[in-house]
Amino acid sequence: MDDISDTANSDSIESQDRQPEEIQCLSPDMNGRWLVFTQRTVHAWDLNRFTYARRPGEGSQSFAWDAVEAPIWDVRVWPEVGGTFLVYFEDPANPSQVQWRISSRIRRIEPDE
Fold it and tell me: For the chain, which residues make up each domain, given as ranges?
């Protein structure tokens, strides 16, 4: 007969590791991949690799390096629902230079699954 005690334990550990559906803010002590939704744009934050990418939605203005994952240099204002964020990231064309983004008002933050 198989011992299922390890299976039960791994299930409970797995459920503890799952990220909640929506959260109120990101912070420097977090990890995981997150989608930050603003008015018409989704911003992908990978806190495991510390990268950022902007994914403009319909009706949103295009910017250089949209949809390109870039290493984050600094976060001056972390994303919080109802607020904005300010992130500095490596210029994909010239890694010795820095680009920055200020978001519009943040509507929600959820895991990137």
Answer: 20-111
